[in-house]
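Morning run. Coffee first, then this:
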Amino acid sequence: MIASLVSVAFGILADLRLSRSAQDAPTRDWLGLCAAYEHGLIRPVHGLFGFVACVDDGVIDLIPRGVARLAQEISDVFARADDDVIDGLGPGAADRA
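And here it is:
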């Protein structure tokens, strides 16, 4: 276990030294792995999540917006009923007061 921890620490230190060096290390772009990773994984995942975000904004958010609009309409109906019926005022009398 100690040898494993020492080898991990050595790998981390070596990576820090290579990444901070002014020279371009030959292993930094080993077999085009960085470009393959960028084009094969990062860009497709970003595109997928961008699409999912658009679906969330355009489709899934319709449900809470619809519920909020329905609640506003119900609130308006109750407010008119309060002004016209419960308070004993005639229709529109609360607007003139």
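Residues 33-60 form the longest helix (28 residues). Good start to the day.
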